[in-house]
TrEMBL record:
Domain Periplasmic binding protein: start-end pairs: 27-313
Gene this protein is translated from: chvE
One Gene Ontology term of the molecular function aspect: carbohydrate binding
PROSITE patterns: PROKAR_LIPOPROTEIN
Xref: PANTHER family: D-XYLOSE-BINDING PERIPLASMIC PROTEIN
GO terms under cellular component: outer membrane-bounded periplasmic space
Protein name, as recorded: Multiple sugar-binding periplasmic receptor ChvE
Source species taxonomy: Bacteria, Bacillati, Bacillota, Clostridia, Eubacteriales
UniProt entry keywords in alphabetical sequence: Receptor, Signal
Length: 361
């Protein structure tokens, strides 16, 4: 009788625990912000891909705040996650959050952006970010004829390791064309000072990015572009070439350049193939984007998480140094999209529906 009572008590206690402790979660996913279509898109693609898994997954957003990100990770740790997939708001600030997870024996997968200066990252799933910057720059080079073409440089947030990789890639391709006079940099004295250096150190890139960062913020991008246009002389405008780091900032910068009466034409780059930018491309307001098929990144992240839950070693294609360790990584290729291949790259591949756009040929 006593035994039965004890058993009953244990059962009641366990029920109580589940009731107040909430559902257990196997995989926690933390994304940077809902304010950019890019990350809302990742959430949607995660949800699509997770429909058929038996594992329980929870997705949380950090809303641009490293403090909120840490709270999210702590909440997921409390729910018993075994794997954390995290795209950091700030690559080095996120180290504390993943170190807390690591202490609990949780496996950490850095998603799209690398978490830096910590040994608490187990894996990294990413696109080839150097190739993104190279593709953006190559587009500008291919469009330019003659010498002295005005070039305006913009970059992502300095807290995002990817901003450096994109810029490094772009510099690889642009620098020789700046050195030979095809392009003339109009909006960064730091870039001008370094324009004869084919390879920049991280500190040198920091100096340039410090001047031309958008912080991945549309308003900051717009304000900066307007300030540059106000400061520029008429002869620094005309037919301009703009390295914009991603779609959100590209649209903001493009709008600013389009509104300047001394700008005759502009070519502007982007990345992410956000719907609004695809429409801009169809309408001739943005020149190109770099399509990063989020379905693949999501598939890789989930595949890795599943392997880890099942005690298997995930497959990787290389590694990235995060300032402290080499993190094993799986990398995905990217595709350039212009007006000419919107349909084949984005519609025929099932990424978007033709009905999402107007004027598509
Ligand atoms: C991502 C881009 C994104 C940017 C701003 C980068 O780390 O790779 O796809 O546009 O952050 O959120």
């Amino acid at each position: 009788m006593k035994k039965l009572l004890a058993l009953l008590m244990v059962a009641v206690m366990m029920l109580g625990l589940t009731a107040c402790g909430g559902k257990k979660v196997d995989v926690g996913i933390v994304l940077p912000t809902k304010d950019e279509p890019r990350w809302v898109q990742d959430e949607t693609r995660f949800k699509d891909a997770l429909k058929d898994t038996n594992y329980s997954v929870e997705i949380l957003f950090s809303q641009g705040s490293s403090a909120k990100e840490k709270e999210n990770v702590d909440a997921l740790i409390a729910k018993g996650i075994k794997v954390l997939v995290i795209c950091p708001q700030d690559g080095s600030a996120a180290a504390a959050a993943v170190e807390a997870a690591k202490k609990e024996g949780i496996k950490v997968i850095s998603y799209d952006r690398l978490i830096t200066n910590t040994d608490a990252v187990d894996y990294y799933v990413t696109f080839d970010s150097i190739a993104v910057g190279e593709a953006q720059a190559q587009y500008l080079v291919d469009q330019a004829t003659g010498k002295g073409n005005p070039l305006y440089l913009y970059a992502g947030a300095a807290s995002d390791n990817n901003a450096f990789l994109f810029f490094e890639g772009a510099w690889n391709v642009l620098q020789p064309k700046i050195a030979d006079g095809t392009f003339v940099i109009k909006n960064s004295s730091e870039a001008v000072a370094l324009q004869n250096k084919p390879k920049l150190t991280r500190d040198e890139m920091s100096k340039i990015i410090g001047q031309v960062t958008t912080n991945w913020d549309f308003n900051e991008a717009k304000n900066k572009a307007e300030a540059h246009l106000t400061a520029a002389k008429k002869e620094d405008k005309g037919n301009v070439f703009i390295l914009a780091p991603n779609d959100g900032t590209a649209r903001a910068i493009a709008d600013a350049f389009a509104a300047d009466k001394d700008v005759t034409s502009y070519k502007v780059t982007g990345q992410d193939a956000e719907k609004a930018s695809v429409q801009y491309i169809i309408d001739g307001k943005q020149s190109m984007t770099v399509f990063k098929d989020v379905r693949t990144l999501v598939k890789d992240a989930i595949g890795m998480a599943k392997d880890l839950l099942e005690g298997k070693e995930p497959q990787t294609t290389g590694s990235y140094n995060n300032g402290k360790i080499d993190v094993k990584a799986k990398q995905t290729e990217v595709i350039v999209v212009t007006q000419d291949n919107v349909k084949s790259a984005l519609i025929d591949s099932g990424y978007y529906n033709a009905s999402d756009f107007t004027g598509l040929k």
